[in-house]
Amino acid sequence: MPRRSSLSPALAALATLGVLVGLLTATPASAAPTPAPQESEALRLELESLTPSVLTDAREVRMSGSITNDSDETWTSINVMPFRSLTPITDGGTLSAAADVPVDEIVGERILTEGAYDNVEVLEPGESEQFEVTIPAGQLDYGDGVYWVGVHASGETETQPRDDYTDGRARTFLPVVSSPKRSLPAALVLPLRSSLHHDAQGRVANPAAWARRLSPGGRLHNLLLAGREAGARPVTWLVDPAIPLAASRLAQGNPPTSITPSQTAEEESGTPTPAPSAPAEADPDEEPTEAEQAAAMAAEEWLRMFSEEMGSHPVLALPYGDVDASALQRTDPEMLEQAVARSAEVMSVLGVVSTPVLASPDGFLSPATVSAAGEDTLVLLNDKALDPAVIGGAVPSTGEILGHTFATTSSGVADGGPGPESPSGPIAVRQRVVSEAALRLINDDRSPLVIAPPPNWDPATGSAELYSTFDDGLMRLRPLGELVRKGTSPGRSGTGRSLAPDPSVPDDALVYGEAQRRAELPTTNVHAAARMVETSKLLESVLTRDSTVVSQTRDVADADMSYFARRRPAVYRSRSTQGREHLKRLLGSVRIDGPPDVILSSNNGQVGVSLVNDLPVPVTVRIEARSTGTMKVSEQPPVTLAPTSRQQLRYSVSAADQGIESLTLRLTDADGVPIGSSTTFPVRTSQVSGILWVLMAGGALLLFGAIGVRLLRRVLRSRRDPAPETDVQPEHDDILEPEPAE
Which uninterrupted H or E stretch holds 449? Predict the structure, then answer.
């Protein structure tokens, strides 16, 4: 057993009072034994129930949970004792500081009243037992505010005798509001956002993981279930439209990016209903894997729940893909505008009425991003994203900045509860919510509380606990859009009557420093995604019939530029590069083949080439010619190639000079943009043909001249020396007797 450290009462008081802005009053050493550091604690305690969540009168408080032996020794005679602090926390800043107090600091005094504590006789290594303790009535009567409450465990082993140190602990906050005069308006925002990957062909990557997310017990399924369990409570959804679209593609068999012609208006927009045509590059005989089948079944049920839930509660629609808005606004604002437009398009086809919103997971947005937002876009910020010093007071929950309506979520709720338990546990989050609300009521702060649970909050276990806080009268749940609506501010009166518009906050109050800029998605990621989209545009430009290649590729690119890509930018950048290479390979299926060389017998002639289309859809291309000299190629109209075909073409060429020139023919789309394929070959031209015709003419003249001379001689001879009639003429009159020598 590691040796445990000890702190003096004075040091404990310094940690809890002086260091943390007067957080707590130190208690006597005999009443508050020194806790041990968390890493040396052998007993792990978890609070599973705390009743009531808000104390409004003098009654007892019950806490129950589990204790687990995480050591390799057997613990015996374990006392599980409740504790509470003696001084309440009365402001939000001190509460935030308290949540960061190290777990081994003294925050309260143990209660040793008979019947208040519990006992576990034996706990073997790895075993767990339930406990229940009580804080008697009247123990939290030191004034309204937020108190520390929790449990300490102390036991013994063969090597560790019992002492005053704490061997395990669990703690949380408990607000005391003795006479609440009104309910605090509040909005609960449930975020439906998740990482989304695609493979190089545009399929949703890792269907097995998606099957788990969409099935009962998975986070995306549990979120919809939490919305259903809200019933009539007006929770507000924060939705990335890429999530239901990915589910739709999985339900359709997870097809890759399709180059087949679109046939309906829905396919023209690239939306998921109805199912797109089977992609040309897919194997129709390929059986889906077990993971794909499981994902398809889970996606169908999830989409049904999604449609029902989105029709029951107000919806805020994020830009498609949950793109890093600040990074895109800085690097490629047009892509951000397209993501916003795509979001509205998908939600409209899904039949979901929504309001556009900009909201980063950390709650920070750059001033340029907020300024460029659409007129009807709501800006959702963390309350730490506004500077109270510039505002000149507390950060408002709603208002206007840079010409746009904003709402601020509670950073305290997002941080969750104090350790050593998980800050996003059900009890931890619930108690942090009611504590934040109680402090606003105690301090007569009328601004509404906008609740966005921590990222790791589990809706399956936490939603019921959280909903219970809206049933005890401390808070009154409202749709977020209603809280930020101009001219009606129920959060400032609690009555919902018409009031003055929300305050306008100075533009320079928006906090966006170097830390936020460094956290943005790298520029190289945005450029990689943009190059993939540009390649898809080139591919679509050669397809004879309309397609949705660009729309589908933009969906993939947006997912590659999401806030989730900040965690692993190199991985997401690699996926964009792989997607672009796949599109380039498809473009490479349309090519031009030329001869090895060409010899022309004159300055004019013809050149033959082959155009090849290995795609299963028709394409339309042009041929652009360039030479290193004076050679010109006759201009031809665009050529349409049938699917998987080859076509021979001949082009007339002419040259002003003789010799050898290099001729390059390359394929372009109908507008003359090169698509990649080209061929280069030498062309030889000659002027020897004219000399050849002169020589041939001269030879013919000599030949016919010689024949004429011989015929003339024969005629003259026959007239001068006629032959006797009886003489037999020789067979060949050209055989003459030799003349006698002179």
Answer: strand 449-451
Paired residues of 593 in beta bridges: 610
Across 351-387, b (16+ Cβ under 10 Å) vs e yields ebebbbbbbbbbbbbbbebbebbeeebbbbbbbbbbe
pLDDT tens for each residue of 555-590: 999 999 999 999 999 999 999 999 999 999 999 999
Which pair of structure tokens corresponds to residue 462?
């936490």
Looking at residue 262, its pLDDT comes to: 60
Looking at the chain, the number of H-run helices and the number of E-run strands are 20, 26
Q: Quick check: 310 and 230 in contact, CB under 8 A?
A: no
How many Cβ atoms are within 10 Å of 533's Cβ, its own excluded? 21
Rounded (10°) CA dihedral 77, 82, 83, 84: 180
Token output for 702: 């000599």
Q: How confident is the model at residue 724 (pLDDT cuts 50, 70, 90)?
A: low
pLDDT at 705 over 70: yes
H/E run at residue 645: strand 645-654
**Residue found by looking up tokens 């009606």 in the block:** 488
The answer to whether the Cα torsion of 322, 327, 329, 333 is positive or negative is negative
234, two tokens = 């007006």
Binning the chain into helix, strand and coil, the percentages to the nearest 5 are: 35, 25, 40
At 635, list the tokens: 């201009």
> Tens of pLDDT along 160-171?
888 878 899 999
- DSSP-derived secondary structure letter, 491: G
- Measured between alpha carbons, how far is 262 from 89 in angstroms, rounded to an integer? 63
Q: State the residue for tokens 């936490």.
A: 462
